[in-house]
Write a structure and sequence with these properties.
35% of the residues lie in helices and 18% in strands. By secondary structure, it is α/β, with parallel strands linked by helices. It folds into two domains: 197 residues, 3-Layer(aba) Sandwich (Rossmann fold), CATH 3.40.50.620; 101 residues, no CATH class.
Length: 335
């Protein structure tokens, strides 16, 4: 009887190799990929999900893409096992993913789960005792196989039952990926971008922005977290934030993600970034947002400028003075 594995596939080198090692043993594999607003490699054509889909297509295996939803944001806000150097709840994140995988495993008829985890590669979530903890809390004891480091652990059920040949598994450990790159060459695995993955939660520069959202949001919104990667962010009121685009890509993103009740601002008489007002909007806050916007245009200092405000499809022209100096604007900056 042919056995089936459910693989957590990010599209990076390690998870790709884990899948290939299983396929080499004749195991049927289905892939599971998770999207996150905190992924640092989520561009439309080269993001982690796109790479995971590419790998699945190349290996001719099915793939399911799931979104880390609002329940995940609550884990980020209050992780049981704490944070790393940033706001990265790596242990809780792995437990979350594997619990989702366990449920989906039952739905697809898979016999066990595989991951590309390597002992000692990540300081928080891939220590020996932590890996055991994650396995236990996810409910996958004995059913979680890590092919790249399997020989550093006690045999799992698939190994004990002979579904998988333990002798053909590996004993990789540590942060270097030299062994993986050599294995990739042996198995003819090529074109593996984003080998180490990336998460904004580990980047200390983003911590203030994330904390600001948690502190000032009555309800969490995945869109708001996705926008953390775009533009300059300003907190101009307890329930009001302004995002000013840095470039055309930011401007387009802000326009595409505008929600009902929110406003777009731009200077009418010259090149201008787009600014979005999110949250409570009053005439006073519109004026403050416009003054911050003008700080990033070529409008003459002290000049009265025409600023177009678009809200729920209705356009309005306001006269706003460009009298915000750098110091005044920076006092609202989230950083």
């Amino acid at each position: 009887m042919k056995r089936k594995a459910l693989a957590l596939l990010s599209g990076g080198l390690d998870s790709t190799l884990a899948v290939r090692v299983m396929l080499e043993q004749g195991i049927e594999v289905e892939a599971l990929n998770f999207t996150s607003p905190f992924c640092t490699c989520t561009s439309k054509n080269a993001g982690c999900t796109s790479q995971a889909v590419r790998v699945a297509t190349e290996f001719n295996i099915p793939i399911k893409v799931m979104t880390k939803g609002l329940d995940y944001l609550e884990i980020v806000r209050n992780p049981r096992h704490g944070y790393g150097k940033g706001l990265n709840p790596c242990v809780d994140c792995r437990v979350y993913l594997l619990r989702k995988a366990r449920k989906y495993m039952a739905e697809t008829g898979a016999d066990f789960v595989i991951t590309g985890e390597v002992l000692g590669q990540r300081p928080m979530s891939q220590r020996r005792n932590t890996l055991r903890l994650i396995e236990k809390e996810s409910g996958l004891e004995g059913l979680l196989l890590r092919p790249l480091s399997a020989k550093h652990f006690a045999p799992t059920l698939p190994e004990r039952e002979g579904w998988v040949d333990r002798e053909k598994l590996l004993a990789i450990q540590g942060r270097s990926r030299k062994v993986q790159m050599q294995l990739a060459e042996e198995l003819d695995v090529t074109n593996y971008p984003c080998p180490g993955g990336g998460c904004l939660l580990t980047e200390t520069a983003f911590v203030p922005k994330i904390r600001d959202l948690f502190h000032h949001s009555d309800e969490l919104n995945l869109r708001d977290f996705r926008l953390l990667k775009a533009g300059r962010h300003f907190r101009i009121g307890p329930r009001t934030k302004v995002i000013v685009g840095r470039n055309e890509a930011d401007n387009v993103l802000l326009q595409q993600n505008l929600q009902p009740g929110e406003a777009l601002l731009c200077w009418m008489d010259g090149g201008s970034p787009t600014a979005t007002i999110i949250g409570e909007i009053t005439a006073h806050l519109i004026n403050r947002a416009g003054r911050i916007l003008l700080r990033y245009t070529r409008a003459e200092a002290g000049q009265s400028c025409r600023v177009k405000i678009t809200r729920d499809g209705v356009e309005e022209i306001c006269s706003i003075s460009n009298d915000n100096g750098e110091i005044v604007s920076e006092q609202y900056r989230i950083e």
